[in-house]
Amino acid sequence: MVNTTTETLRHYDRIDLVKPCKVDEWTGYRYYSQREIVLLNTIKALRCMDLSLQEIKKILSYDDFDQVISALKRAEESADEKIAELNNAKAKIQRARHYYEGKLNDGRSEREPFIKHFPERVILLSDTMNTPTTDNLWDYHRHFYGQLPKEMKGDFSFEDIAGIYEQGGRRQMFAVCTRYRQTDGIKILPQGNYLCADCTEESRGETTRNLIDMAKTQYGADPQFTVQLVVVTGILRWNY
Question: How confident is the model over 225-232, as a mean pLDDT?
């Protein structure tokens, strides 16, 4: 009824978390009433919010309504954080799937340069990050909200996209803004046709140099900056 194991029930009995309403003296079978069923379902929900059994036991022992409400509010906040983390993980998995679907559908070699039109984009440059890592990509937006003045945080939101902006030998990671105010680090990427190529971390430098040479020799352009978008290709893996 509560989708738990007999060993879990025995453990809850041993630690006095949920005791059966009756134990058969001959067979040792434990019997649970509706009250224990409600308790077990409550514990299961609180466990999903990463509360320990000791914390749950403490919550269930409260007689004061204010204490119960306060504890449940903290559990709600923990649940919201976990939901946000799961949504973040889901977005990364979706991007990896879309990447492979795109490769399957377009049949284009990863090494072959191509032209792609982009609309105008507003980006916020990082004041400290210049290279993607597992740690900074996992909690990417927190860094950018952290570098904003406190009174401006509510004026910003970002796409779930990471990238590197390089100009004049300086590299800075960036987030793409969907809502923003003018502040330090804001830069406009103009709309237009961009010369693009897919690459790995190992080939990124060579690929960038080749694209700049091609822009000059074949298109008569002198690129003032490059944009290197991070493309998640798997768990803990990405290309550009």
Answer: 90
What is the rounded (10 degree) CA torsion for 118, 120, 122, 125?
50
User: Mutual orientation of helices 34-48 and 6-14 as an angle, nearest 10°?
Assistant: 100
Kindly tell me if the per-residue pLDDT of 234 is higher than 70. no
pTM: 0.58
Q: Where are the beta strands (DSSP E) in 7-73?
A: 22-23, 30-31
Q: Return the structure tokens found at 118.
A: 């982009």
Domain annotation for the chain: domains and CATH numbers? 6-61 (1.10.1660.10), 108-239 (3.20.80)
Residue 183 near residue 147 (C-beta atoms within 8 A) = no
Q: What tokens does 166 get?
A: 């390089």
Cβ neighbours around 76 below 10 Å, total? 11
Dist CA 228 CA 146 (whole Å)? 23
- 164 C-beta neighbours (distance < 10 Å), count: 22
Residue 45, pLDDT above cutoff 80? yes
Helix-strand-coil split of the chain, %, nearest 5: 45, 25, 30
Report the chain's mean pLDDT, rounded to a whole number. Answer: 87
